[in-house]
Description:
Blueprint: H1 2-14, H2 34-44, H3 51-66, H4 69-81, H5 83-92, H6 99-114, H7 117-125, E1 139-140, H8 144-147, E2 159-167, E3 176-183, H9 188-199, E4 204-209, H10 217-249, H11 264-270, H12 274-281, H13 293-312, H14 321-330, H15 334-338, H16 342-366, E5 368-369, H17 371-394, H18 404-410, H19 412-425, H20 445-466, H21 468-492, H22 498-512, H23 554-559, H24 562-581, E6 587-588, H25 590-609, H26 612-615, H27 626-652, H28 658-663, H29 668-673, H30 675-691, H31 701-737, E7 753-754, H32 760-771, E8 775-776, H33 791-799, H34 802-806, H35 812-819
Parallel strand pairs: 1-3
Antiparallel strand pairs: 2-3, 2-4, 5-7, 6-8
Helix pairs in contact: 1-3, 1-6, 1-7, 2-3, 4-6, 6-7, 10-11, 10-17, 13-16, 13-30, 13-31, 14-22, 16-20, 16-24, 16-27, 17-19, 17-30, 17-31, 20-21, 20-24, 21-24, 21-27, 24-27, 25-27, 30-31, 31-35
Amino acid sequence: MRIQVFALLHIPLFGLCVSRTYAGTEEYKFLDDLKSQERFLKKHIPDFTHPEVKEHVLRMLRWHHNKNTEQLAKKALEIYGDPDIARKVEESTNYAVSRQCLSQIAKITIDTIIGEPYARFVDDSNGRQPSGLLRGDYLWLGKYYECKGQTDATGNIVTRMCLNVIGSSENTTAGLYLQTCFPESCDEGEVASYLEFVLGNGSYVTPFCAGDKPFSGGDIAAICVFSILAFFVLVGTICETVFICLDLYYDGENPAHEARKRSVPAYLMLCFSLIKNTKTLFNTDRKESTIEVLDGIRFFSMAWVILGHALYFSFSTVDNVLDILNFYVSHFGAMAIANSTFAVDSFFFLSGLLVTYLTMREMRRSSSLNIPIMYLHRYLRLTPTLVVVMLFSSTLYLRIAEEPIYEMRNAIIPELCEQYWWSNLLYINNLYPKNFGLGCISWVWYLANDWQFFVISPIFIYLLYKHPIGGYVTLGAVLSGSIVVTGSLASYYDIYPDVMSYSVVARALQYIFEPKPIRFNQPVGKSLPPGTTYEEMEISTTAPVTEGVGDYDYFQDIYGKPWCRIGAYVIGMMAGYILYATNKRLKIRLIYVIGLWIAAFSLGLTLIYGWWGNVNSFKLTDFPTDDLAAFYEALKRPLWAICLMWLTIGCTFGYGGPINAILSWTVFIPLSRLTFCAYLVHPLVVYYMYRAVETEPHFRVNTYMYYYLAALVMSYAAAYVMSMLVEAPMAGLQKIIFYTPKGKKPWYSIFSINVQRRSQETRSSRSKMNADVHPVEMVDEEVSTHSRIGAEEAEEAKLSYGKHAAMSDENGIENVAHSNSSTAL
């Protein structure tokens, strides 16, 4: 009886008899007679099919020619309706299959045999074994929209697509991915039991079936939040439009005209104005205090991050993952993608530079340091946008696509965010959970590190301001400690350069998927360079493991930990102090300028491409020594920050030439202002591009570049939306909250620490310290007062009317970001 059950669902499930009895159409006229059909089926039923199943299919075919369709369907329903069959299915699995589910599967099976159109679509939509297995294609997706909503003549059967993960353990997401079309009457538990019963051999099936999911409380809350934000933006934009019209109508009249006055609620609503915030975003005016080169560095760093993620995120969805690995080990340009993690250190460097430079300028202006307000500004700057992105990711993001693979890949997000949302809000998500990859929107581990560095930064800033040499010594000690700790961990756990570890994985998987038996010291069907033996390709038992040993994990215990990543931030603080101390003006001899540019470029290119020879090597045991690997791991990120240090200082001091012209291009100003939001939303964009698909993507270099450029543009488009909804309005509200009338002390001045201005002797010692680096003709001039959040700007807005009042604070986003020692993002 089990063979009969298997035979009945064998056809629609795996698509083994692709043509069956397609009688009635001109191209299948040769299948009208029984003998032709038998010969055709015998030929096309695969050899691995059980002999009894083959015979049963042929018996069903002969019976079909002797009985009418109604009798055939009745017989099939009797078989599936047999309580004994249901009992056997239940006994062989952990879940009972309802009689309705079995009956509808039986009807689809029989309708497929007799050629019912809807059943043909159901059968045709099933996933099946494709070509390219040896290139890593174990994602057998069917045709989702061909399956969706197919109904029989009575309307009782409605189908949906299920993605089934077939593996060796329960509730797994690792294994063969097979999509099959099932009746909606079969729930996920019945689908799993049914397939496990059919497949046998101890297989476990974890299904993810598409379908309408009920709205959860989180979904409703997200809809309410986004509706409120959109409403405020709409009202603010309308208010802005009305004020503009009033300004035009009363143009030339008394500025104090009653109709042109703005109330406090009006200013609150203007914070949400799309017109005002867009104009602020695209305003390209720069203040004297602006470090222009940072705009280009921000944008290109963000573009580099997206470049790496566009390739990394594709591993779980493409149908030729081995071609990606081959691209990695055989293309020189792939090293830039593999080393895109340096872009994160660029942001750490920029963040350290900005917090030092801007805070010290404010200390010189006000002779005070208000640490609690620094923390509050920073928290209000980051957290609202982060909360909204977390809310969207764990609720509505799962509803913007309906494909089973999209739902399956993203199903864990709500669970993780429900469990660890508080960790993100406290900015400790790089420490808890230990595996930050299992946290809520795991890519925000950077923000946790950056916040922790920001919390301790006032200590170093105060020392630099009061005792520059002591401050530099302290920063040097922290940098040295980070290098020692990172190198010690890398040495103890035999951590090798991540690009080398990727190479090990790529080579090993290539050998595993070779069509010949896997014997690493024997020929495997691949030609070798002259002079290379197969013994040299053998994977030694002493070869380095991939990213960690035992319970140790490189990404969790080195890559994401603050004591291993603070080096770039510290070097950024050093650069920020140099820019502050010299007022961004310093003359250096041409010979030193040329030497520094050559050294910076050489060092940067070496860090990115230096391991190419090892990565491209056919010798799997061609690894650096443990000491060399640990030395590289300890120094690579601080050395990258040193390269950026000269890039920033050289361009700011006027020695950048065309490099400075490119990085300071005003086009990058609005793009750099969107960097924070782009950082938060770009993984969602890339995931959507790869997962909201009906068929799996195919990797090629040109298609990868298409995906990357699309991800870059879409990420910044989504960042603009997020900025207009949350980030820009929150920046405007901060201005109002911290508004202080002229001539009065800010209400938050009670938290300030008085900092005396340094004496002339201190200035002289600072000049001498800078001269030791061989600068000449150092210019030391006072710079314009750095604006505090909302003080002068809000006062000016309150006392002004008309166009100036409506468009006051054109630099709102930039001012808020800079005034609270903005993150590099």
